[in-house]
């Protein structure tokens, strides 16, 4: 199916940026060969704010010389703000980017069903919610799919394509092709709570939070260690950027779905209750102003943080942050959420993972470290900190079979 016209529901930051990506599709960064797109919201103020966000991005591109003023006007001419569904009678795909509450998303899908053609694809930009449950709200479950863009949507290349239980193969193929036409890197992920990237990232973010909570290290020390490993941003800075209320919401959902290994650190709730939501309010893990009881979020032992977090025998080295991420990647692989290549591709494209100067995902990193080394590290962490570090059975199986990674010629990948 060819897609000639799109709709986006929700003119917040993500919705506005998705609309911009569609309007620029097929051209260079900031080009103007895109598709017409309707950007709908329920409030004029939100539409105005979303449109201004788009204009600000385009102005920056003009200032950098990556597009012309004429291209800016052509891109803007393709984006039509809307408060009602009047012009949705010929859209080929609608991407909803409304608040992350399943009742709201179901409601807008039911509204859409009454106005769009029978062939229209309903795509949800949810980062974690069940696509199958969303699809149950419509009489067209074969046309409902997840299309999860990453923040910022106009820059990040990864799109997770998530079919539900009843999504047709045709719908999946159409959305993968559409994502490619937008200049994105689509990775098809079998439905599971958190999909792939968030599911893998949160054990890493949880451990960074626990290191702060336990007084092991300061935020700066934890972030510096992650940067030295090869992550593009430290976990504490990432959480402040995402918003601690968003992190708490996703973390609680993952804990509910996966159990103890995804248990939410209490510090998340304490910070949110104190109004420390991150960059958007000027204070989170890193306060702009010391004005509350949680202004210092590391514990009393933080002065010895660097020595503690770098001490491998203490269980607080970079392994404490990275090994849970690797372990969750193995869990995902053994559950057939995605093949090894796509697991690694998603973490490189969606989270910017690198290792020793090269772009590598968690399974390739495990192969390079040695699967026996990773297994031993997880077992040690499990003995010190509990079952959230319990190794996935596929990791044990690989090690038992001698599939130890690069040094053995095979691990999660094959090596010559």
Notes on the structure:
The protein contains 17 helices and ten strands. About 8% of the residues have low confidence. By secondary structure, the protein is an alpha/beta fold. The protein has two domains: 183 residues, Rossmann fold (3-Layer(aba) Sandwich), CATH 3.40.50.720; 221 residues, N-(1-d-carboxylethyl)-l-norvaline Dehydrogenase, domain 2 (Orthogonal Bundle), CATH 1.10.1040. Helix 7 runs antiparallel to helix 13. 47% of the residues lie in helices and 10% in strands.
Secondary-structure map with pairings?
Elements: E1 6-9, H1 13-23, E2 37-40, H2 44-64, H3 69-77, E3 79-82, E4 93-96, H4 102-113, E5 121-124, H5 131-135, E6 144-149, E7 158-163, H6 169-181, E8 185-188, H7 197-213, H8 219-229, H9 235-242, H10 244-258, H11 266-273, H12 305-310, H13 318-334, H14 340-351, E9 354-355, E10 358-359, H15 362-369, H16 371-385, H17 393-400
Parallel strand pairs: 1-2, 1-4, 2-3, 4-5, 5-6, 7-8
Antiparallel strand pairs: 6-7, 9-10
Helix pairs in contact: 1-2, 7-13, 10-11, 13-15, 13-16, 15-16
């Amino acid at each position: 199916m060819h897609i000639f016209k799109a709709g986006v529901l929700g003119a917040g930051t993500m919705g506005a940026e998705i609309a911009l990506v569609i309007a620029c599709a097929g051209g260079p960064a900031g080009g103007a060969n895109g598709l017409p797109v309707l950007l709908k919201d329920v409030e004029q103020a939100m539409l105005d704010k979303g449109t201004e966000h788009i204009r600000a991005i385009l102005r920056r591109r003009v200032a950098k010389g990556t597009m012309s003023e004429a291209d800016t006007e052509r891109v803007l001419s393709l984006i039509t703000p809307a408060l009602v569904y009047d012009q949705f009678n010929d859209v080929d795909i609608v991407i909803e980017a409304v608040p992350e509450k399943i009742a709201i998303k179901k409601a807008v899908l039911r509204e859409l069903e009454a106005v769009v053609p029978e062939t229209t694809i309903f795509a949800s930009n949810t980062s974690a919610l069940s696509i199958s449950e969303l699809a149950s709200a419509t009489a067209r479950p074969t046309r409902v799919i997840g299309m999860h863009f990453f923040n910022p949507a106009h820059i990040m290349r990864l799109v997770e394509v998530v079919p539900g239980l009843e999504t047709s193969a045709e719908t999946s193929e159409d959305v993968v092709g559409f994502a490619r036409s937008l200049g994105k890197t689509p990775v098809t992920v079998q439905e599971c709570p958190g999909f792939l990237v968030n599911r893998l990232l949160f054990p890493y973010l949880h451990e960074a939070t626990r290191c702060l909570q336990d007084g092991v290290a300061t935020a700066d020390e934890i972030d510096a260690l992650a940067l030295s490993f090869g992550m593009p941003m430290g976990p504490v800075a990432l959480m402040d950027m995402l918003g601690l209320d968003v992190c708490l919401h996703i973390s609680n959902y993952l804990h509910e779905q996966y159990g103890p290994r995804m248990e939410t650190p209490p510090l998340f709730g304490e910070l949110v209750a104190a109004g420390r939501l991150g960059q958007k309010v000027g204070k989170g893990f890193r306060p702009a102003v010391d004005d509350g009881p949680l202004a210092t979020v590391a514990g009393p032992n933080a002065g010895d943080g660097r020595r503690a977090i770098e001490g491998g025998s203490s269980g607080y080295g970079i392994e404490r942050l990275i090994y849970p991420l690797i372990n969750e990647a193995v869990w995902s692989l053994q559950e057939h959420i995605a093949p090894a290549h796509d697991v690694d591709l998603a973490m490189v494209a969606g989270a910017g993972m690198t290792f020793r100067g090269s772009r590598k995902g968690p399974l390739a990193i495990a192969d390079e470290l040695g699967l026996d080394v990773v297994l031993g590290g997880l077992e040690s962490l499990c003995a010190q900190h509990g079952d959230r570090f319990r190794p996935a059975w596929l990791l044990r199986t690989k090690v038992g079979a001698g599939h130890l990674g690069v040094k053995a010629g095979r691990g999660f990948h094959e090596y010559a």
